[in-house]
């Protein structure tokens, strides 16, 4: 289960909204079909003026599907990599990330089609856990790489008492929920440039 939450600073409370999503084989096939159709079309905005309704519609659709792809990546990694029963995701996080991914891809020769996306999550004790490597279009020679690093919400790390409670319910190293921070890191590396300027790091 991947949960989304709207973060509000009211009495230091966090109001969460949770929903279940099933990422079965048919869902993955539907996702792949969408990306095949999407990537066969011209890059977003090509031949269209800025603010053109068709351009905005196409960009919004691509952004939405990319957000779903990231949520699916987190869901698939719950038990295998993240060792938790659910992932709590701030409500607008995946949409914000998707918009920034599209922005960084806009200046590239092949747009998003030339992207290889590496998805990671910060580990509690330093370093990162690698979740997936996503090749946006296998028929296109990649022109750039994006490394997305989700950040954990440090305030949600379990206390010693919580660890004893969790240990009674789950196997060692397994916890009930992992809560992500609204912040994230995007690292862009151009594959056809050896200059240090070919690497861009953006922190949010």
Quick overview of this protein structure:
The protein is α/β, with parallel strands linked by helices and 204 residues long.
Oligomer: single chain
Helix amount, in percent? 25-40%
- Helix/strand/pairing category: alpha/beta
Q: Name the helix and strand elements from N-terminus to C-terminus, one letter apiece.
A: EEHHEHEEEHEE
What is the terminal separation in angstroms?
25 Å
Can you put this structure into words, describing what you see?
By secondary structure, the protein is an alpha/beta fold. Helix content is 34%, strand content 33%. It is built from 4 helices and 8 strands, in the order E-E-H-H-E-H-E-E-E-H-E-E. Strands 1, 2, 3, 4, 5, 6, 7 and 8 form an 8-stranded mixed beta sheet that branches. Strand 7 and strand 8 form a beta hairpin. The two termini are 25 Å apart.
SSE order and pairing:
Blueprint: E1 2-10, E2 13-18, H1 25-40, H2 53-82, E3 84-90, H3 93-105, E4 115-122, E5 128-135, E6 144-152, H4 160-169, E7 175-190, E8 199-203
Parallel strand pairs: 1-3, 3-7, 4-6
Antiparallel strand pairs: 1-2, 4-5, 6-7, 7-8
Helix pairs in contact: 2-3
Provide the descriptors you would attach to this structure in a database record.
eight-stranded mixed β-sheet, 4 helices, alpha/beta, globular
């Amino acid at each position: 289960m991947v949960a989304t939450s709207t973060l509000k600073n009211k009495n230091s409370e966090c109001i969460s909204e949770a929903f279940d999503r099933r990422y079965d084989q048919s869902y993955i096939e539907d996702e792949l079909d969408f990306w095949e159709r999407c990537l066969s079309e011209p890059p977003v905005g090509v031949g269209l003026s800025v603010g053109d309704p068709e351009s905005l519609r196409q960009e919004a659709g691509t952004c939405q599907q990319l957000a779903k792809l990231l949520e699916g990546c987190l869901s698939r990694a719950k038990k295998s990599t993240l060792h938790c029963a659910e992932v709590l995701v701030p409500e607008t996080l995946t949409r914000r990330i998707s918009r920034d991914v599209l922005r960084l891809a806009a200046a590239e020769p092949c747009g998003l089609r030339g992207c290889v996306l590496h998805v990671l999550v910060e580990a509690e004790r330093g370093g990162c856990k690698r979740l997936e490597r996503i090749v946006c279009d296998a028929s296109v020679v990649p022109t750039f790489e994006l490394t997305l690093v989700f950040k954990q919400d440090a305030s949600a790390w379990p206390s010693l008492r919580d660890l004893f409670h969790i240990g009674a319910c789950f196997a060692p190293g397994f916890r009930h929920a992992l809560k992500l921070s609204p912040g994230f890191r995007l690292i862009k590396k151009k594959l056809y440039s050896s200059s240090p300027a070919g690497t861009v790091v953006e922190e949010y």
